[in-house]
Every structure is written in C-alpha cells, then in structure tokens.
Design a protein that fits this description.
CATH topology of the largest domain: Rossmann fold
Strand order of the largest sheet: 3-2-1-4-5-6-7
CATH architecture of the largest domain: 3-Layer(aba) Sandwich
Number of strands: 14
Number of helices: 17
Shape: globular
Structural class: alpha/beta
Radius of gyration: 22 Å
Distance between the termini: 13 Å
Strand content: 15-25%
Helix content: 40-55%
C-alpha cells in the first residue's frame, strides 16, 4: 500500500486551526442542544463518541450531509449487502432530520451515526472505534480533516455522486489549494454530470468519471400499514395532492393554487409537507395539523408537520409538487414520488436535479409549472394518472447498482 502524501501548506494550516474546534466543540454543541437543534440522546456522537459497538467483520463507511444524500445511498447499500453478505455499513450525516428520516428507512446491517466535527482528536476518536475498510463520501461536502486522517490510516476513499455547480465552484476558488490536496486523496471520484466533472477538475481532481444517479435506484420510501389505512379513511372522497419538502416560495404557489381549486371543488385536499416542519407558518386557510392529532372535517388543507412520512403522503396522493423548485434551493428529489406512482410536478428551478428531471420529463413522467395557473392546469390534466404510472415504470426499469457495488467493494482494504 502506497504511503499517503504529506499535506500541502493549505491543508496543514487547516489542520492546525481545526484543533481549536476540538476544544470549542462541546460548548458549541451544548448551545445548539439548548436551542433544540441537536438530538439530546445522541449529540455526543458529534464529538466522535460512538453510540453503539462496532459490528464484527468488514465495515463500509458512507457519509452524506442531509436527508436527500443519505436516503439516496439506500439502493447502493442494498446492492453491496447482496454482493457481500458478511459486510456491515455505517452511514453518517450531520443534520438531525437526516437521522430521523433515515432511521425509519434503515437497510439491513446498517448503522447510523452523526459525523464528528472536523477536529483531529474527534475524527481520530471516531476512526479508532469504527475502523472502516472503505470510506465513501457523497455529493459536494467533504471535510478535509476527516479525509486526510482516513487517508493517513490507509482507508480507501471514494467520492460518489459528486456534484459541484458553477456557483459552488466560485465559492471554493479561494480555497482551491486546499481542495486540490483533499480531492487527490480520493482513489475514485464519480460525478453525477459532465458539468460537475469539469468543475471538479478545475478544483484539482485528477480524473473524475461519470456515473448514473443513485436516487433513481433507491428503494421506495416506507409507510406504516396501519397509519396508511387510517389516513385513507380520513381522506376518503377527497382529491388529494401533496406539496412535498416545501420552502416558503413553494408554499406561496401551492396555497394560492389550493385556494382556487377548493373554491371550484371542495373535494380538493392539499397535504402540505414542509422541509422544516418546525418553521413558523402563516397558512391563511382552515387546516388540520398532523402534530396535533387533528382530524379533517372538510378543511382544504392538511399540514403534515412531521419528519420521515413522505412515503405515507405519496401513497395517498395522485400528484406531488416537489419543493425547492420555486426558490434558490434549486429542487429536491423527484424519484421518491415517482417510485410510488405519484405524478411529479415542479417549478422552474431544479438545478440540483437537472439530469433527473430531464429523464422524467423525457418519459412523460414529470411536468414543469411556472405559476399558479400552470399548476392548476397540471393538476386537472386528464393524463395525470398515466403520468404517475409512467414515472413508476421508469423507476422500475432502473438497473440495480450491482456493478457499482462490486467495483466499490473491490476497493476495500484487506484485513
């Protein structure tokens, strides 16, 4: 095994400064805990303190920042588990919501932990306990200290489904020397589109290759059968559509649309699923609220202010307006509703999922809407049901990730 390269001056400076994080991290996390931003049962995982024992045998560590990233990993984990039944999988993320949602959709032989803050002693504590045989980072967030330490320990590193937009590239130009060192420590970099591959090259990646989307091959979101039956009874006789993973810009369009739909036909029901259910809302119409256990009594709106239940709402709705597409977020994952036969509707801003929406649109399974009038027309389209069926068929045609799984497992270190 080749010896890991020494850090360049930028990475040395980063590592020196990050030592301060080890001292400041407990106080910082306690402040977040007091504000309800950290899990009171598990916050010490971010200090590198493991919450559970390490399983025996070989261990693959996969990291994604938030909900979308970790949920997209499920198909790959299942493919690797099929290929090597003795292996176990550790998935890390940073956001509390990602732990809650992923915990309800956990693949077999898989553990979730929070990623430790990127300070040398915290990362060392984490790696001392877990001793992974392969480290897979996804999308665009890579932590220089964690990558460097894993490389020094001989842990093979992969950057998967990498995405760097032009905007992200511009933000990183002033630390290009740091990223150049970090990216060269990955033995394999797989980008999700040509633009990302070019931008990674501009940051110093040697040979980024292209890969297919992980999200189209992810298993369908789960739903509790008893709760599904209960909600089906509650929604009986209603024309249900869902606005999913919404932000304020999406909600303005969805609520204005629902006001007009309900005025024309009181059977219309909007299930609003905000990306951040703890955010304050001004809905402007009568509604029942999930967190309060309220039962619908003819209201036009149901506020689904809970984590990890999109699998339930997609099964109950004929169409989904996927959020993040009317504002600067630039879209959320369209494959989750498509996998459950829910017609996909979206606003004009989907830069994070350009290829994904393009594939669905080419199959007649997704439709772009620019405003309230366009959304009303899309929801009343006579082929809305067929649109959902086409999306589900496209997902079912997605080849499993077995070839990629075999390639990655072949990179695991021995012993």
């Amino acid at each position: 095994m080749a010896e890991a390269a020494a850090p360049n001056f930028a990475l040395r400076a980063y590592l020196a400064l990050s030592r301060l994080l080890g001292w400041l991290a407990p106080r910082y996390l306690r402040r977040r805990l007091a504000k309800g931003r950290e899990d009171p049962r598990r916050w010490r995982e971010k200090l590198g303190e493991a919450g559970v024992p390490r399983p025996g045998g070989r261990l693959v560590w996969l990291n994604g920042v938030g909900v979308g990233e970790v949920m997209a990993l499920r198909g790959l984990i299942e493919a690797m588990a099929r290929a090597e039944p003795s292996s176990h999988f550790l998935v890390t993320s940073s956001a509390r919501s990602s732990a809650e949602v992923f915990g309800g959709n956990l693949p077999a032989r898989c553990i979730h932990q929070y990623l430790p803050i990127d300070a040398p002693k915290l990362v060392a504590r984490f790696l001392d306990h877990w001793r992974p045989d392969l480290a897979i980072w996804t999308e665009q967030e890579v932590w220089p200290g964690a990558v460097y330490t894993a490389d020094q320990r001989g842990i093979p590193l992969v950057l998967l489904n990498a995405r760097i937009t032009a905007r992200s590239l511009e933000k990183r130009r002033f630390v290009k020397v740091l990223y150049s060192d970090v990216l060269k420590r990955f033995r394999l970099i797989l980008a999700q589109d040509k633009a990302s591959a070019q931008n990674l090259k501009a940051l110093g990646a040697a040979d980024p290759q292209l890969m297919r989307s992980l999200k189209s091959a992810a298993p369908s979101l789960v739903a509790d059968a008893a709760e599904l039956a209960r909600m089906q009874a509650m929604f009986a006789g209603r024309r249900v559509w869902v606005a999913a993973s919404t932000h304020p810009e999406d909600e303005a369009v969805a609520l204005a649309t629902q006001a007009q739909l309900h005025a024309q036909d009181p059977s219309w029901l909007l299930v609003l699923v905000p990306r951040d259910p703890k955010r304050m809302f001004s809905l402007g119409m009568a509604h029942a609220t999930r967190s309060k256990g309220q039962v619908l009594a003819g209201e036009p709106l149901y506020l689904a202010d809970s984590f990890g239940e999109l699998g339930l709402w997609y099964r109950l709705a004929q169409a989904a307006l996927v959020g993040g597409s009317f504002g600067p977020v630039e879209g959320h994952n369209p494959w989750e509703p498509a996998a459950l036969g829910c017609a996909v509707l979206h606003g004009p801003r989907v830069g994070n999922f350009t290829a994904d929406y393009g594939a669905l649109q080419a199959a007649g399974a997704a439709r772009k809407v620019d405003d309230v009038a366009g959304l009303i027309a899309a929801l009343n389209a006579p082929d809305l049901g067929q649109q959902g069926e086409r999306g589900q068929a496209l997902v079912q045609k997605s080849a499993p990730l077995d070839d990629m799984a075999a390639r990655l497992l072949g990179m695991m270190r021995d012993g």
